[in-house]
Amino acid sequence: MRTRFATVLVTLVASASLVACSDGTPVAPTGSDLGSKSGTQVGNDTTIGGVVLPARIRISGHALVTTKDGPRAPGDTLSAFAPIAGAHITLYRNVLVDGQGVSVKMAEQTTGADGAYDFAGVPGGYYILALNVTPERFYGETFTYVLGTRTEVTADIRVWHTP
To answer: For 7, phi and psi rounded to 5 degrees?
Structure first.
């Protein structure tokens, strides 16, 4: 079961298309983005598994990197993290387009000295936060999934090596 889940996850991530937005709202990809598909539209789902999504949410948190010499007990993998200042955070919203999962680029930010980021006023739904995206790595150095079912969501992005 674990192998099957990993295969599905890798397939979804590898096949996702990225679509730029002009004003922070999802837009339908052009025909050139999705080949010859017609009737393409970005879903405006208002529920996930029967849970009504908020119209607007706030996703905030910190970009953090592990430190090799942190004060921690043996086996503790979460306490020795330091903020990453100046990290580039990209927010993608996962939507369905013609029955396929697509990651729509919603916004980008650079973290402050404390590694903090804050995306306010985005619609509720499924999201991916990516750290230091490049053209070669569209999900960056690392990424984390965010489920936006509450008006305030906190999600830290943790890097297990020096970025």
So the answer is: -65, -45
